[in-house]
């Protein structure tokens, strides 16, 4: 299988700060890539560069061989790439179903079809019984699942998940882990930012570690947990 995503020498500067510094790696189709590193390492910035939200200062991002630099989010979505946001902000005064329909409308102009697509994704995240609830009233665990349903409704080939387990209890995190593994079975490639090391080790095929904007290491979960530079910079000896 070929690379679905190629990140080539990507740097992103904010004034004098290199939030990403010469980061390169590739993702094969169908894999789950974990993206880890200390706070401020540049993980979310890299998501922003990949999804076209920020143009990289240097380097390029190729998705299915296409250059993504500076593309509008709507176009990125139609090409088959979707992301979640760390701080989930559903359209609070709209129903759960309508929130997911907003995602589906990136693929169709028909409200009837969008409704069907949205219901299908609500079933995937097991929230079909909440379809008519107001999104603003949901607890955090369900807001996170709603966010996943919304991006799935855009029918992505590549999904970027930014700390979807953040703030969840162990049972809710487990549900998200199963959901991510389910999504992989459907053939969707995923990049996952997560601070929960046990979770990231379980779900990732490969892991990239960022530190101070640079790629510190890349490898299988086993290679990453035994990498001395990663232990020193991030994991600490307890891992
Ligand atoms: N829009 C911006 N303007 C200026 N500096 C920024 C901006 N976005 C991020 N940064 C800085 O870039 C660095 C990397 O931030 P980023 O949010 O990408 O890290 P992160 O690895 O996602 O961190 P966390 O795990 O805390 O979410 C930080 O020093 C941050 O303050």
TrEMBL record:
<feature type="domain" description="ABC transporter">
    <location>
        <begin position="5"/>
        <end position="237"/>
    </location>
</feature>
<keyword id="KW-0547">Nucleotide-binding</keyword>
<dbReference type="InterPro" id="IPR003439">
    <property type="entry name" value="ABC_transporter-like_ATP-bd"/>
</dbReference>
<dbReference type="Pfam" id="PF00005">
    <property type="entry name" value="ABC_tran"/>
</dbReference>
<dbReference type="InterPro" id="IPR027417">
    <property type="entry name" value="P-loop_NTPase"/>
</dbReference>
<dbReference type="GO" id="GO:0015808">
    <property type="term" value="P:L-alanine transport"/>
</dbReference>
<dbReference type="InterPro" id="IPR003593">
    <property type="entry name" value="AAA+_ATPase"/>
</dbReference>
<dbReference type="GO" id="GO:0015188">
    <property type="term" value="F:L-isoleucine transmembrane transporter activity"/>
</dbReference>
<dbReference type="GO" id="GO:0005304">
    <property type="term" value="F:L-valine transmembrane transporter activity"/>
</dbReference>
<dbReference type="GO" id="GO:0015192">
    <property type="term" value="F:L-phenylalanine transmembrane transporter activity"/>
</dbReference>
<dbReference type="GO" id="GO:0016887">
    <property type="term" value="F:ATP hydrolysis activity"/>
</dbReference>
<dbReference type="GO" id="GO:0042941">
    <property type="term" value="P:D-alanine transmembrane transport"/>
</dbReference>
<dbReference type="Pfam" id="PF12399">
    <property type="entry name" value="BCA_ABC_TP_C"/>
</dbReference>
<dbReference type="GO" id="GO:0005886">
    <property type="term" value="C:plasma membrane"/>
</dbReference>
<dbReference type="InterPro" id="IPR051120">
    <property type="entry name" value="ABC_AA/LPS_Transport"/>
</dbReference>
<dbReference type="InterPro" id="IPR032823">
    <property type="entry name" value="BCA_ABC_TP_C"/>
</dbReference>
<keyword id="KW-0813">Transport</keyword>
<keyword id="KW-0067">ATP-binding</keyword>
<dbReference type="GO" id="GO:1903806">
    <property type="term" value="P:L-isoleucine import across plasma membrane"/>
</dbReference>
<dbReference type="GO" id="GO:1903805">
    <property type="term" value="P:L-valine import across plasma membrane"/>
</dbReference>
<protein>
    <submittedName>
        <fullName>ABC transporter</fullName>
    </submittedName>
</protein>
<dbReference type="GO" id="GO:0005524">
    <property type="term" value="F:ATP binding"/>
</dbReference>
């Amino acid at each position: 299988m070929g690379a679905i995503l190629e990140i080539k020498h990507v740097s992103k500067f904010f004034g004098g700060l290199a939030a990403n510094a010469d980061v390169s790696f590739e993702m094969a189709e169908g894999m789950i890539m974990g993206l880890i590193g200390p706070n401020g390492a540049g993980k979310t910035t890299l998501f922003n560069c990949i999804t076209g939200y920020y143009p990289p200062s240097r380097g390029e991002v190729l998705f299915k061989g296409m250059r993504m630099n500076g593309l509008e989010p709507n176009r990125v979505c139609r090409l088959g790439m979707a992301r979640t946001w760390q701080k989930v902000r559903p359209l609070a005064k709209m129903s759960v179903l309508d929130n997911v329909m907003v995602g589906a409308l990136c693929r169709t102009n028909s409200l009837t079809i969008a409704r069907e697509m949205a219901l299908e994704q609500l079933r995937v995240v097991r929230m079909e019984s909440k379809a008519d609830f107001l999104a603003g009233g949901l607890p955090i665990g369900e807001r996170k699942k709603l966010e996943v349903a919304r991006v799935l409704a855009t029918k992505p080939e590549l999904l970027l998940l930014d700390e979807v387990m953040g703030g969840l209890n162990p049972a809710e995190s487990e549900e998200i882990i199963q959901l991510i593994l389910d999504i992989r079975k459907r053939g969707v490639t995923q990049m996952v930012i997560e601070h929960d090391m046990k979770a990231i080790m379980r779900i990732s095929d490969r892991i990239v570690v960022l530190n101070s904007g640079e790629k510190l290491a890349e490898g299988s979960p086993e290679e990453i947990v035994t990498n001395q530079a990663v232990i020193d910079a991030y994991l600490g000896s307890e891992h």
